[in-house]
Design a protein that fits this description.
- There is one protein chain.
- The longest helix has about 30 residues.
- Helix 5 runs parallel beside helix 6.
- By secondary structure, the protein is of the alpha/beta class.
- It has 2 domains: about 350 residues, Alkaline Phosphatase, subunit A (3-Layer(aba) Sandwich); about 140 residues, no CATH class.
- Helices cover about 25% and strands about 15% of the residues.
- It has an 8-stranded mixed sheet, with helices on both faces. The protein has a 4-stranded antiparallel sheet with strand order 12-13-14-18, with helices on one face. The chain has a 3-stranded antiparallel sheet with strand order 6-9-8.
- Strand 16 and strand 17 form a beta hairpin.
- It contains 11 helices and 18 strands.
């Protein structure tokens, strides 16, 4: 019987591939710390992404409302509050550790602000930390690496300032989190510590002994930047050999961050934190590393590599084991609200997983819905997955927002989301009476980055138990009518805009 804990640690490892973890059957790379956590956790077998990519996924987890049907990547809106807001009202301390640059730039402006305290560990990916390379850089521990298509990306400057492994953002973040837990774990009767760790997201850059761990024969500069492309090897964007090097460097970073995650588990062990603390290990999404010759996170459907993600929960009194119930990222938010006895004041979409911790054989939802704004919308019942693309022109499509910010594209500083124009009008989101700017888009408009170029009519249907690699598209089978009906139901259940039914050909 679970003892309802008063302390919670959530660790989000970005771009964590489920199929590469030892606990989920992976044998390609070493993940001993994550496997160690799995040995004392309830391991979820059917956990799926919802809103994508990075910031929309965090919106699912921190706010509990899927937003991809209404808007692209963006900040927390005026009618919403993160779970940390409600904990602040109850005077429950909340602490954020993160090296995730998107949390501190346009499009992610206010996800961290309701934490009681936060620590931003600088230097990862697009973080504008340094204006030049370190002129005294001697080449260690950061090894020579090709700049890739990112060119003068901020990280290519930042990495020259690292002098030891603990200067790399990932190790520094998890080491700081472990130190806080050690120093403050007994200082508060209740708390939420949220670790938003950007590794093993690219750049796949590690010092020795991790660098070369899975590709010792590579003699050239490290390939730390994967392409974002479909058919990258087939089109000659990278060679097959370069693909193996990129994949190996992901594995090196996975093993490195696993090692530093182990430091957090050491504190949990040493201080008997398992008796009063619930620990959640999750991710926002996976990362393509050559599966179907897809690389990075290009605009493709959420195949299993990207959309079927790991989730482990260790809690006092909960026996280790496996849970086959269907879950999704908004359920993490609902579980935190349930644990801390708070009630959100807006329309949310999650279902608490606490009943599953009591009875892993139970069920809390019949479908998991997901997608990217303006692209495919998918639904799964846990065995069958249906991914429906727009039809016709891909319109109508509108954006609902009072913040009006989205992901910056560092390589193209002149590219930005246009301001609302004369077509915009005030509307309401489900569950709020706050007037919201609704901007209709049409063909020829500059769309948000992730919404460009949807694959019209590219519907896909897979029966996962017999086709786990999603090689046989069963669109046209009688099963499609059943899944179309489930998708309509799922969209209606979250009060999706009518235009989503129209653009998907489901009216």
């Amino acid at each position: 019987m679970m003892k309802k804990p008063s302390k919670v640690v959530v660790v989000l490892l970005d771009s964590l591939n489920r199929h590469m973890l030892g606990a989920y059957g992976g044998r390609e790379f070493e993940t001993p710390a994550l496997d160690r956590l799995a040995a004392r956790s309830l391991r979820f077998e059917k956990h799926y992404t919802g809103s994508l990519p990075c910031m929309p996924a965090r919106h699912d987890i921190l706010v509990g409302a899927m937003d991809f049907l209404w808007r692209p990547w963006g900040s927390i809106e005026l009618w919403e509050r993160p779970i940390t807001h409600y904990l602040r009202l109850e005077q429950i301390p909340t602490m954020l550790f993160s090296d995730h640059p998107h949390l501190f730039e346009t499009g992610g402006e206010n996800y961290h602000t309701d934490f009681m305290a936060w620590e931003y560990l600088r230097g990862h990916e697009g973080d504008p930390w340094k204006t030049r390379a370190d002129p005294s850089w001697t080449g260690t521990p950061a090894l020579p690496a090709a700049p890739g298509e990112r060119g003068e990306y901020p990280y290519n400057l930042s990495r020259t300032w690292f002098r030891e492994e603990l200067d790399f953002p990932g190790p520094r973040t998890l080491n700081s989190a472990a130190d806080w837990l050690s120093r403050h774990g007994d200082a508060h009767d209740s708390f939420l510590m949220f670790v938003d760790e950007f590794d093993p997201h690219e750049p796949f850059d590690t010092p020795r002994p991790w660098a070369g761990m899975y590709d010792p024969d590579w003699q050239e500069d490290l390939l730390i930047w994967p392409p974002y492309a479909v058919g990258a090897v087939g089109k000659g964007i990278i060679t097959e050999r370069e693909g193996r090097q990129i994949r190996a460097n992901y594995g090196a970073k996975l093993s490195m961050i696993d090692h530093w995650f182990g430091k957090l588990l050491d504190v949990m062990d040493r201080d008997n934190r398992w008796d009063d603390t619930l620990l959640v290990l999750c991710t926002d999404h996976g990362h393509y590393l050559g599966e179907k010759d897809i690389w990075g996170k290009p605009r493709v459907p959420q195949y299993e590599t990207l959309g079927h993600t790991p989730l482990m929960i260790a809690a006092p009194g909960v026996e280790p084991g496996v849970c086959s119930a269907l879950t999704t990222n908004v359920d993490i938010n609902a579980t935190l609200a349930d644990l801390f006895d708070v009630e959100v004041q807006y329309r949310s979409h999650g279902v608490s997983m606490l009943p599953l911790l009591e009875d892993p054989g139970a069920s809390i939802r019949e479908y998991a819905l997901g997608g990217i704004f303006g692209q495919w919308v998918q639904v799964t019942d846990g065995t069958t997955k249906y991914m429906r693309a727009p039809e016709g022109s891909g319109f109508p499509l509108s954006m609902w927002s009072n913040r009006w910010s989205t992901m910056p594209v560092h390589a193209m500083p002149r590219l930005r989301l246009p301001d609302p124009d004369s077509r915009a009008f005030l509307d309401n989101m489900p569950g709020t009476d706050i007037p919201v700017i609704r901007q209709p888009f049409q063909a020829g408009d500059l769309l948000p980055f992730w919404s460009v170029g949807p694959a019209i009519g590219d519907h896909q249907l897979y029966s996962l138990p017999e086709d786990p690699l999603e090689e046989v598209n069963r669109v046209g089978d009688p099963l499609e009518a059943q899944m179309k009906s489930l998708l309509r139901h799922a969209l209606a259940d979250v009060e999706a805009p009518e235009e989503q039914f129209q653009r998907l050909g489901l009216s």
